[in-house]
Specification:
By secondary structure, this protein is α+β, with helices and mostly antiparallel strands. It is 62% helix and 17% strand. Strands 1-4-5-10 form a four-stranded antiparallel sheet, with helices on one face. A two-stranded antiparallel sheet has the order 2-3. Strands 6-9 form a two-stranded antiparallel sheet. A hairpin with a 6-residue loop joins strand 7 (308-315) and strand 8 (322-328).
């Protein structure tokens, strides 16, 4: 039996040494690491960047648009020369047209302005959503961290009980060998030791699982050397809670990002409704264009001949018709260069337009109706989040009160259990108490110690939640 005890002690000592090989993580270290490396937070941050782009684009939509276009065409047979607007027969035409156009909205029912305000609200809401995810992760890490501390203390209690039972096994074995006790006492104690060894293994397994859970929350690869710091956590005060759940809710309603996000989303829905109504308004816009073109069949005058008398009419009011002559110069046509055509074919214009919606398949009315529904949904979502927050605070408060009552009761019970066990242990050592009664007393002590630890850490976590809702950071 001594050999078993020594082997267990050596294994536990080696495990303890291996966990100290790596720097222990504090709760603050865990939360800070998660804020920088958590994938969910990174995904949420990318969502804010998308909304930043949407806001930037809605602001840029206020400036005039400018577009350039160019077109090349090849035609033959009877075709229209776009530069002269004359039809040609049996000719092949290579032509190029190009131009610039610009347009700016002067008024469209304030839709652009309301879109900017809506996108700004969406961006602010996405920032709050990031904070909500950070808060959730912080609370989950705090819960996992406190679970590790609880399991560590539970392992320590189980180890202490195992050592006590091991000492009793050795003492009983000696008394059996001396003929002072029946061998059945030794066998019962050895069975108790085996059961406590199993409890020890279970407690260590739970500790390993809780360490693994924290590493998974941090997105860290599994490392058996991973460990956490053990801060000094005072026992809960025996006095009743002085925290007012309603006062906590009043603060949380103003501070919690999930509430602010829902409020901003509601305001965004209101802007959506204004945008939908703006579609009923006439739109006033200003446009401008600049165009030019080229045709390879077009020619220009390269020279003029000397004046030639050209008849332009016949007078019949005399005995002999009189032919009227007019001196004219006959032009000679030649190649019309590309850049000269582009310069000479330039045309530009400015226009002011008004678009009045009359009937568009009831689309505007449908959009307005859908926007009203979305606004009502966002209003209900805000109410739902407020109710959920209040319920969470009430639950945390009720759990804290219950944990404090359980801790106080377990603490009083532990004092009695420790005294009772000491008395039973002394009676067992002199043979006045059998092994069964000794084991029952010891198991009751272990259960009370476990209940005390569970109540302590449950109370600490609930108080951390309530303080967190009051705007305090999560620390130990």
């Amino acid at each position: 039996m001594i050999r078993k005890f020594l082997i267990s002690f050596i294994i536990l000592s080696v495990a303890a040494l291996s966990t100290t090989a790596q720097k222990a993580w504090s709760l603050e270290d865990c939360i800070a690491y998660a804020m920088e490396n958590n994938i969910s937070i990174k995904q949420s941050v990318l969502g804010t960047e998308y909304n930043e782009n949407a806001l930037k684009q809605s602001r840029l939509n206020q400036i005039p648009s400018l577009n350039a276009d160019a077109r090349y065409s090849y035609s033959w047979g009877r075709a229209l020369d776009q530069t002269t607007y004359q039809f040609t027969d049996d000719q092949q035409i290579n032509s190029i047209s190009m131009g610039f156009s610009s347009r700016v909205n002067l008024f469209n029912g304030l839709q652009v302005r309301n879109t900017i305000l809506k996108n700004k609200l969406d961006l602010m809401a996405s920032y709050e959503d990031v904070e909500k995810i950070k808060n959730d992760i912080s609370l989950n890490i705090a819960a996992a961290y406190l679970n590790i501390l609880f399991n560590k203390e539970l392992v320590a209690v189980t180890r202490s009980q195992l050592e006590t039972t091991g000492q009793q096994v050795e003492r009983t074995e000696k008394m059996v060998d001396a003929g002072k006790l029946a061998r059945g006492n030794y066998l019962e104690l050895e069975a108790q030791y085996a059961a406590e060894e199993l409890n020890m293994v279970n407690a260590e397994n739970q500790l390993s699982i809780s360490l693994l859970n924290l590493q998974q929350l941090l997105d860290l690869p599994f490392d058996t050397a991973f460990d956490v710091e053990i801060p000094e956590l005072p026992d809960p005060d025996a006095d009743p809670l002085v925290i007012d759940a309603l006062e906590v809710y009043r603060v949380a309603e103003l501070e919690m990002p999930e509430i602010r996000s829902a409020e901003l989303s509601k305001e965004s829905s209101e802007k959506d409704l204004q945008i939908a109504k703006g579609a009923r308004s006439p739109s006033l816009y200003l446009s401008a264009n600049y165009n030019s073109g080229y045709s390879d069949i077009r020619e220009q005058v390269v020279s003029l001949s000397d004046p030639v008398q050209v008849p332009i009419g016949i007078t019949q009011n005399t005995l002999e018709p009189v032919i009227t002559l007019n001196p004219q110069q006959i032009p000679t046509y030649g190649k019309y260069p590309f850049f000269e055509q582009i310069r000479d074919n330039t045309s530009a214009g400015v226009g002011l337009g008004l678009s009045v919606p009359i009937f568009n398949g009831w689309q505007v009315n449908t959009s307005i109706s859908n926007a009203r529904i979305a606004l009502e949904q966002s209003n209900l979502e805000l109410q739902s989040r407020k109710l959920a927050l209040y319920a969470s605070i009430q639950q945390a408060y009720a759990d804290a009160v219950a944990a404090l009552k359980k801790f106080n009761a377990s603490q009083q019970a532990l004092v009695s259990m420790e005294e009772s066990f000491k008395y039973t242990e002394k009676k067992f050592e002199v043979g006045l108490v059998n092994t069964v009664d000794y084991n029952i007393s010891k198991n009751q002590l272990t259960a009370t110690q476990s209940d005390l630890l569970q109540a302590k850490y449950d109370f600490i976590f609930r108080i951390k939640i309530l303080n967190f809702y009051k705007g305090e950071p999560i620390t130990l």
